[in-house]
């Protein structure tokens, strides 16, 4: 009986080892944030074709989702990794482009792993691997487009104001900074004149017009702020 028990335990250990070996990480992609709304997410692919998406920030789904590659998709991925041979590349590719969206690709093999960090200045084969990982995820219903957290819902009432910025101020940078500090979700609608005059909207169900005007007028980069009424009313 003792010999039989030992034999059974030995078989169980063997099966466990096979299962672990059969489902190891193959490659992982993790995008990094930027000053704007670059999508931040992680994609992990396993040797048996299983895959996992983790939405972290500025994506449609801030959640964990799993999906499974088809046999052809897994073969395509393996062939791409074999042809690219990520192991031969340096671990880091510095960029000279300020605030460019970046990513870390981690490749796994025989209990070893290697990180490759970089942005758009990485060699083309590495960028093609990232494109393939994204393509496979999208094919399984994963939305990877960036999402502006300040986007006003369609059903929400939009209230518009006219904001005149100092001539040297970039409107996009100003809007990003003021939204980060005030959490008001202001949105640029359009530029209405060459002297840096903009139509800016906000969710009227959440914020009072006078409060937004006070906030804007107090900002160091704003020269003037007023409600966006019809031209006949402004004359």
Count helical runs: 6
The main pleated sheet reads as:
7 strands, mixed
- CA radius of gyration is 26 Å
What name does the CATH topology of the largest domain carry?
Answer: Mago nashi protein
State the low-pLDDT regions, or none. 1-7, 10-20, 231-235
What is the residue-mean pLDDT, rounded to a whole number?
85
Notable traits:
2 domains, disordered N terminus, Mago nashi protein, Alpha-Beta Plaits, 7-stranded mixed sheet, disordered C terminus, 4-stranded antiparallel sheet, 235 residues, 11 strands, alpha+beta
Summarize the topology:
Elements: H1 2-22, E1 25-31, E2 40-46, E3 50-57, E4 64-68, H2 71-84, E5 92-93, E6 103-109, E7 112-118, H3 124-139, E8 158-165, H4 171-182, E9 187-193, E10 197-203, H5 209-217, E11 222-227, H6 231-234
Parallel strand pairs: 5-7
Antiparallel strand pairs: 1-2, 1-6, 2-3, 3-4, 6-7, 8-10, 8-11, 9-10
Helix pairs in contact: 2-3
Describe this structure in words.
A hairpin with a 3-residue loop joins strand 2 (40-46) and strand 3. Helix 2 runs antiparallel to helix 3 (124-139). It is built from six helices and eleven strands. It has a seven-stranded mixed sheet with strand order 4-3-2-1-6-7-5, with helices on one face. A four-stranded antiparallel sheet has the order 9-10-8-11, with helices on one face. The chain has two domains: 23-139, Mago nashi (Mago nashi protein, 2-Layer Sandwich), CATH 3.30.1560; 158-234, Alpha-Beta Plaits, CATH 3.30.70. 32% of the residues lie in helices and 30% in strands. It is an alpha+beta fold and 235 residues long.
């Amino acid at each position: 009986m003792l010999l039989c028990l030992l034999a059974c335990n030995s078989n169980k250990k063997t099966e466990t080892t096979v299962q672990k070996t059969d489902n190891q990480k193959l490659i992982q992609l993790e995008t990094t944030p930027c000053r704007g709304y670059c999508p931040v997410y992680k994609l992990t692919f396993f040797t048996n074709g299983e895959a996992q998406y983790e939405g972290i920030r500025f994506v449609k789904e801030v959640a964990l989702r799993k999906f499974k590659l088809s046999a052809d998709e897994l073969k395509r991925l393996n062939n791409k990794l074999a042809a690219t041979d990520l192991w031969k590349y340096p671990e880091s590719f510095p960029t000279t482009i300020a605030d460019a969206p970046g990513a870390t690709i981690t490749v796994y093999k025989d209990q070893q792993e290697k990180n490759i960090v970089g942005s758009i200045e990485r060699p083309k084969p590495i960028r093609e691997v990232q494109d393939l990982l994204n393509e496979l995820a999208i094919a399984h219903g994963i939305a990877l487009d960036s999402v502006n957290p300040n986007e006003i819902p369609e059903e929400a009432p939009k209230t518009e104001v006219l904001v005149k910025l100092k001539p040297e101020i970039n409107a996009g940078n100003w809007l990003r900074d003021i939204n980060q500090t005030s959490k008001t979700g202001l949105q640029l609608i359009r530029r209405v004149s060459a002297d840096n005059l903009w139509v800016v909207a906000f969710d009227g169900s959440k914020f009072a017009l006078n409060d937004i005007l006070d906030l804007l007028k107090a900002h160091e980069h704003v020269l003037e702020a007023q409600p966006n009424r019809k031209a006949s009313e402004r004359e």
